[in-house]
Every structure is written in C-alpha cells, then in structure tokens.
Amino acid sequence: MRQTRILVMDDHRLFVETLAVRLAMEPDIEVLPVAHDIKGMLAIAKTGRPDVVVLDLMLGSVSTVGALQDLLDRCPEARVIFLTAAQDVSLMVQAVRSGAVGWVPKSVGADQLIRVIRTVALGGGYIPSRSLAELLRRLTTGDEVAEAEHRLASLTQRERQVLSCMVDGLGRSQIAESLGVSVNTARTHTQNLLNKLEVHSALEAISLAMRAGLRPSVPAA
C-alpha cells in the first residue's frame, strides 16, 4: 500500500499533535513531524517532501496564504489544504489563486478530513458546497475584483474586522466599542489598513472592500 506523506502545521500545539496522532492511525498515511510556524513548516517540507500539506490559515493575526509560494517552490508536487475556522470567501479565493486545492472547516470530524486528504492526494480538490458557487463567481470575475481581493489579503485579522465595521457604517468610536479597544487603537488599525490598501480615505477603503465582496452585516434601515 502506497503511503501518503502528510505535513501538518498549526500553532495550537495540542490540536496539531492530537491531529497527527489520529492521522497516523491510518495505514495509508505517513505523518511527518508537525510544524508550529511557517519557518518550521518550510524546513520540514524541504527534507520530508510531503504529498499533502495541511495548513492552519491564521497564525495569530497573520495569514499563511503568503507562505504558499515559498512552500510550492520547495515542493512543487505538494497538494495544499487549508484547515481553518475562517469562512471568509475572499481569503478562500486568495488561497486558491495561490495554489491551494482544499479548504476544510475546523468544525469537520477527523474522518471527513481524512477523506479529503485522500481525495487531494489522488489529484482532486475540496471546497465546502455552501461556498463553492461564490468562489467560482469570484474566480471568474474581472481583474478589478481580483485586484481588490488581492489587496484585502494583506490585512491582518483585526484590520479586516475594522474594515468590516467601516463597511457597516460605524464611526471610529463605534468601531472601538464594537471591538473592545481604545479609540486610539482603532485609529491606528484604520491608518494601517488604509496604507496597506493603498487608499487615502475611509470611503475609498469601503469601495475597495465592496468590490472584493464585503457587504454590510446589517442592512441599512
């Protein structure tokens, strides 16, 4: 029986080590040493030559999508699955455009994850059915939408939360209250996201966010 070499990376040590033990129980799966950060993942990938890599999408507030090119440069044959609690389709689009072939919610059971790993190892892919239509729509839209999504992918998780509040029409003090931070902190996050998005005003940021698919969470009265 041919074994599929699996590399798993997650910064929650108990979770990733428990997952590795469960995967290793399968006779057709060989689990490489687990990684807890991007540097460790790239080092293990270079020597272990995994067939499938299962990545946590967020390490703290940092997206691991940006590390995908480095990983595929080292292991061009590797098939990459993101295992994540995030449900942001914009991040999913960025991940697929960067070379990922699977996106699995952390709410699934181990048996389903193993089925996905086997499917991916054989050349298939996996996207949750509830997200597939929107993902395909965004992947087939024009360059303007793709550019907007690319810019949003540079934001941290907190900056995306601030941007979502801006799309909802909240002012700075309301954003601070909603996120449980000071007004100064909200101001800093706002300025950082404006710089990253290469825009000069909140209105431009909101317009860019809506081109990327963000919508107000509560319809205006």
Could you write a compact summary of the structure shown?
This protein has eleven helices and seven strands. The chain is of the alpha/beta class.
Write up this protein.
The protein is α/β, with parallel strands linked by helices and 221 residues long. The chain has two domains: 4-138, 3-Layer(aba) Sandwich (Rossmann fold); 143-211, Winged helix-like DNA-binding domain superfamily/Winged helix DNA-binding domain (Arc Repressor Mutant, subunit A, Orthogonal Bundle). It has eleven helices and seven strands. The strands form two sheets. The chain has a five-stranded parallel beta sheet with strand order 2-1-3-6-7, sandwiched between helices. A two-stranded antiparallel ribbon has the order 4-5. Helix 9 (172-179) crosses helix 10 (183-197). The longest helix is centred in the C-terminal third of the chain and has 15 residues, at 183-197. The radius of gyration is 19 Å and the shape is elongated. The termini are far apart. 33% of the residues are buried.
